[in-house]
Design goal:
Elements: E1 5-8, H1 19-34, H2 41-56, H3 64-76, H4 85-92, H5 106-117, E2 121-124, H6 132-141, E3 151-152, H7 165-175, E4 182-186, H8 189-192, E5 201-205, E6 222-223, H9 225-235
Parallel strand pairs: 1-2, 1-4, 2-3, 4-5, 5-6
Helix pairs in contact: 1-2, 2-3, 5-9
């Protein structure tokens, strides 16, 4: 089936990073923003993790944003509602400092531009655990143009997360394409490669490989950006 769209993961794929370093810096700064308003830092961290887990487990009955705050408020108590605007302030301001926990590669923008030049549709299929402001910030950090992507998944426009196959199906539905017409590019074996179960083509970018279960990756199309370019050109 002819390739019509390329779905790109962001963190660790188009935006080089050590995920553990990124998450630690991100959570530390977010907690530092909210805790001074009378909240226990340890409880805040627990609530953020629980909210994140609720998004990953979301069954499609609500947006990921709704799933997060339902779990978050359940732990922190109703009083936290008055301080939820602090999250918006954080993503508009302090979050940008987390960029120093990430890297940068010109090859990321080059491969997206190649996809567009070939007449293919580009999707930023980043796990929708973040609001639009945070995702747009990470796009800037990566040196990318948000306008190059027809669809960018964020926690307010998505009701599933990776590795749920319904996440990938929902993208296909929005594009009006079948999975076989799409290529999923990502660095996480457990989150990104399951798209192949739907018949979607996959490419494992190994620059910032995540494979905690030590799965055998020998059967995947894989490599760096040069190998990815070859695969895309072969599929067009």
């Amino acid at each position: 089936m002819k390739l019509k769209a390329v779905l790109f993961d962001l963190d660790g794929t188009l935006l080089p990073m050590d995920q553990n370093v990124f998450i630690k810096d991100y959570f530390t700064r977010l907690i530092r923003k909210v805790a001074p308003y009378g909240y226990d830092p340890a409880l805040l961290e627990k609530a953020i993790w629980q909210g994140s887990a609720a998004m990953v487990k979301n069954d499609g009955s609500r947006t990921n944003e709704e799933a997060f705050f339902e779990a978050f408020i359940n732990i922190m108590g109703e009083g936290i509602r008055q301080h939820i605007p602090l999250f918006d302030e954080f993503y508009k301001n302090e979050f940008d400092l987390v960029r120093f926990a990430c890297g940068h590669t010109p090859a990321a923008d080059a491969i997206v531009k190649l996809v567009r030049s070939l007449g293919l549709r580009a999707v930023l299929a980043t796990n929708p655990l973040f609001p639009p402001e945070a995702t747009l910030a990470r796009i800037r950090w990566a040196g990318l143009d948000a306008g190059d992507f027809e669809l960018i998944t964020t926690y307010d426009n998505s009701s599933y997360c990776k590795p749920n196959l319904k996440y990938y199906l929902s993208i296909c539905e929005k594009l009006g394409l079948s999975p076989g017409e799409c290529l999923m590019v990502g660095n996480d074996v457990g989150d990104d490669m399951p798209a192949g179960k739907l018949g979607m083509k996959t490419f494992l970018l190994e620059d910032c490989l995540i494979n905690p279960m030590k799965e055998d990756v020998s059967n995947y199309s894989r490599g760096g950006f040069e190998e990815l370019e070859i695969i895309i050109l072969e599929l067009v």
